From TrEMBL:
One of its GO terms (molecular function) is transaminase activity. This is Aminotransferase class III-fold pyridoxal phosphate-dependent enzyme. InterPro entries: Aminotrans_3, PyrdxlP-dep_Trfase, PyrdxlP-dep_Trfase_major, PyrdxlP-dep_Trfase_small. PANTHER family: AMINOTRANSFERASE (PTHR43094), AMINOTRANSFERASE CLASS-III (PTHR43094:SF1). It comes from the Bacteria. The keyword Transferase applies. Keywords: Aminotransferase, Pyridoxal phosphate, Transferase. It comes from Marinibaculum pumilum. The keyword Transferase applies.
Amino acid sequence: MATVEVARPNEGVDNLMLGYSDLRSLQTRRPLVIARGDGIRVIDENGKSYIESCASFFNASFGYSEHELAEAAYEQFKLMPLYSSASHRTVDVVLRLTEMLTARLPLPDAHISYCCSGTEANDYAVKFMRYRNVYEGKAAKRKVISRQNSYHGSTVVDSSLGGAKGLHDSFALDMADYRFVTQPDYFNNRLEGESEAEFVARLAKELEDVIQEAGPETIGMFFAEPICFSSGLTPPPDGYWPAMKAVLDRYDILHMDDEVITGFGRTGDWTAVDNTLGFKPDLMTLAKGISASYFPFAVTVISDPVYQGMLKGNDIQHGFHHAGTLHGHPVGAAIVIRVIELMEERKVLEHVREMIPVLHKGIHAWRGHEAIADTRAVGLAGAIQLDPAAFGPKGEENRGQMGQRLLECCMERGLIVRPRADSVIIGPPLIAGAADYEEIFALLALGMKDLQEEMRRA
């Protein structure tokens, strides 16, 4: 197991609230405590090394020991360690970064709003949509449609956007302005005998039905990742995005492209827009890889047509009344600039494109394995979905938790994967090389063997 039994928690542990953890378990079980990092590996307090094959939360794009980024932070700390970009004041490093970003993002004449996390960026996308619609004479268009089994952040707004009813109920969220449609997961959500084309047509009709039921005059935005990682890495079938876009255009609904995970290299480009969506979204969010997570930093990107509507509100209100103390932090901006420079100097996007087929080959090699129900891969990420029935009665007993069980076995072998229901996802730092992938898949195979033996014994 990845945790250590202790007689009593050491200092700090019993006062720490760890997200996505069992709070009671923290009282008796010490969590995995990471002491340092080295490339794509992390080393715990006992000296054990793990390959982080999911880059923490798909965010450590340059791994855990990139000294160039640490140096960029240090130099900025010495020059100007902090300043709030607001009230008609900013710092030069923020202006330089804005120019660099707009030159590389797919939205023509894009406008950039800075914040500290993907959660904030997504929350603000909804806020900006409402602001724009108020001053475009469409104040009623405030509801948002997102997808079941999705995740967009942890604020009240973002938790409402996430497609998990248990989460909505447990936090007593007001769901009046949120609607949901089916995740485009063909393997798990198709009807018996349904072709991919029929599946896409059904989902497009479902979207239109949801719009009609809620009232077309009340829906302001469709909010979705180009590829949903939170549902177990489910790339949509061919034709999905054009079909959805046609419905959105018919009802004058904005499309918000959540690229918190896919942006900054995960698909082999700066964003997934051109090679996944095939059209330009109205808003976009970027976080995680934008700073390689060496600093909390994120952006909401606003297309010019949406921005023009926001300008109407600005003119009426004599200013744009939105800001944050740490938004556009100069140290974060300096790190992002260096990330962009390193990606170009080291040809990181080209390297990712070379590694994509290596990862895909390793993932799809599991097809036909007795314990695997499905394999999926897109960009520099892949997933294997376990078949609980293949593990006997104990597997059925753990249905929906097999990914977690496999994670535990893999961690014993020195590999961290990302569990999601009965699937595990692999999406290592962008810098991982062919030898790293060979080791990842070898350790994954050992973890799978251990899980099968454990289930047989049980």
